Amino acid sequence: MGRQTKNKVGRPSELAQSLEKAKAYLLGDYEKLGDVVPSIAGLACYLGKSRSRVYEYSEQNAEFKDILEGILALQENRLINKGLQGEFNATIAKLMLTKHGYSDKQELTGKDGGALQVETKPLSSLFHDDDS
Prior knowledge:
Pfam families: GP3_package (PF16677). InterPro entries: GP3_package. By secondary structure, this protein is mainly α. About 50% of the residues lie in helices and about 0% in strands. It has a domain at about 15-105. Helix 1 crosses helix 2, helix 1 (about 15-30) packs parallel to helix 4 (about 60-85) and helix 3 (about 50-60) crosses helix 4.
């Protein structure tokens, strides 16, 4: 006789249930909840779990990890596009985009890309008395 395969019986695991709900969240349920952009915190609230539990699930299950990465990618995309369209507060969008590796910095260089040349004068030269 051949080997018999076991049928799964019983209630689905917490991870399996959370995985299905996480997929729904990513595919648009976040908007139904009133979230403007999807987020890990939003997913945790949706699942009724802590953020640390959500991260544990992503370490245990590759598909769950892909969903978290999808949430971050969609968040980044919406921040960029809605920010450019003026639908999001620019300061908040800029702040949130720093979590995706974006930064707002200026680099100052001198002539031909070299160092800036700074000319200094003694403070006493500002108060030089010309009447003497």
